[in-house]
Specification:
Layout (H helix, E strand, L loop, with lengths): L6 E2 L30 H4 L1 E3 L10 H20 L13 H6 L7 H8 E6 L3 E9 L1 E5 L8 E4 L6 E2 L16 E4 L5 E2 L4 H5 L9 E5 L2 H10 L1 E6 L4 E9 L7 H7 L14 H10 L1 H9 L5 E6 L17 E3 L10 E6 L6 E7 L9 E8 L1 H8 L3 E10 L2 H7 L1
Parallel strand pairs: 4-17, 5-11, 14-16
Antiparallel strand pairs: 2-3, 3-18, 4-18, 5-10, 6-10, 7-8, 8-9, 11-12, 12-13, 14-17, 15-16, 15-18
Helix pairs in contact: 8-9
């Protein structure tokens, strides 16, 4: 988005393409061991046979189509989960194109299920919002949609010890004194830190809608001339994501009691609109800012560079689910039950069995994603023989 998008995991992802992120995180989200930095360390065991899953024909065919689009990633990218090797996917990917029309048989033939950790899943939802926008600034359409600025760089701070430099260098900028510092946060950007630099690729009419589109990580701008401009995740300012739904819950603003607002995207937006000053300050607690580019291809792109599809694409933590792998969800929200393909990730999608389901565009997608909070079981579909090989190793 959550990444596609990234995503509002309702992040969103947030995303995000590039960006999925949970708006209303629950305090009892599934927990994995603190040292579990990959699926193998979280624990892997055999799940039920694929043929025993209640897989509908339509669901299987849609998942197969997305799996085919993901195969190039499976065949060239190292799997950071520790579960599979590139060669493990060759047989299934080779057979997939000829298996259209017999998708259920295809998945039963080439895959087995693996339970990661407890298998206790938590899933949210994200979608591709469409909001009013314009290509050139207008009095009623002036919220900038920025491209990635050229002074946003990755660099190790000079005062950081060599032993602390693990992973990727942080994002930031060089200030007027020549020092590497964190990049501008949301409040600074809203107050004009990037104005006048020619970074605007478009404008949005509503700052609240634009805030939530950023959480999703991609979306559509409905233009005044009747056209539609699709924008997608291009980068992020390096600042931490804060789910404002969690803050509102801590403050007692969300719930079912008198004076409280519904714990959904719709309820959060209602509070912000009815309390504009408090709402602005609340949104600014999320210092993360998403930069965009115009998309001209087929659909919003997930983090592996292929289009995400409604009710087929899911955002995952790639340390626990291989990108491109099928995922079976059986939740207390039946609408999200079925087979999904791991094609995206997001800032709030962390840990084993944490998922963000994609619901496409339109009002029904907004409603489903905005209220999605499902719990149940999850199984990863991996090439047959994977679990036995892991146990042997």
């Amino acid at each position: 988005m959550r990444n596609v998008i990234r995503r509002l995991t309702l992040v969103a992802g947030l995303a995000v393409l590039g960006g999925c992120a949970s708006i209303v995180p629950k305090s009892d989200e599934p927990v994995v061991p603190v040292n579990a930095t990959s699926a193998r360390l979280a624990g892997v065991q055999t799940g039920p046979s694929v043929s025993s899953l209640s897989l509908a024909d339509k669901d299987a065919e849609a998942a197969l189509a997305s799996f085919i689009e993901s195969c190039p990633t499976l065949l060239r990218r190292d799997d950071t989960t520790g579960l599979t090797r590139q060669a493990d996917w060759q047989q299934a990917c080779g057979a997939a194109p000829a298996s259209r029309g017999t998708a259920k048989l295809f998945f039963a033939t080439y895959f087995e299920t693996a339970q990661i950790g407890s298998g206790e899943a938590f899933a949210t939802g994200y979608f591709e919002p469409e909001i009013r926008g314009c290509r050139t600034v207008q009095p009623d359409c002036s919220v900038p949609v920025y491209a990635v600025p050229d002074d946003l760089i990755r660099q190790w701070p000079e005062d950081m010890a060599e032993s602390e430099r693990t992973g990727r260098p942080p994002l930031g900028r060089i200030n007027e004194n020549g020092d590497f510092v964190p990049y501008f946060e949301r409040a600074e950007i809203e107050e004009g830190a990037l104005a006048g630099r020619g970074l605007e690729i478009a404008y949005a009419a509503d700052p609240v809608e634009m805030f939530f589109l950023q959480i999703q990580g991609s979306g559509r701008l409905s233009l005044s001339d009747g056209g539609v401009m699709r924008i997608g995740y291009a980068g992020q300012n390096g600042r931490g994501y804060t789910g404002i739904g969690g803050v509102m819950r801590e403050r007692g603003l969300l719930g079912d009691g008198p004076g409280q607002y519904a714990g959904s995207m719709q309820g959060i937006m209602q509070y912000i609109r009815e309390n504009p000053e408090e709402g602005r300050d609340l949104m600014r607690l999320n210092k993360s800012w998403i930069f965009f580019r115009e998309l001209t291809g087929d659909g919003p792109l997930g983090s592996i560079g292929v289009p995400v599809r409604r009710e087929s694409s899911v955002a995952v933590d790639p340390k626990f689910v291989p990108y491109g792998a099928p995922v079976w969800l059986d939740l207390d929200r039946d609408v999200a039950d079925g087979l999904w393909i791991a094609q995206d990730t997001g800032g709030a999608i962390k840990g084993a069995n944490r998922f963000d389901t994609f619901w496409g565009a339109g009002e029904d997608a907004r409603q489903i994603a905005g209220g999605m909070s499902g719990r149940g079981k999850a199984f990863i579909l991996v090439p047959k023989g994977t679990v036995a090989r892991l146990n042997a190793e």
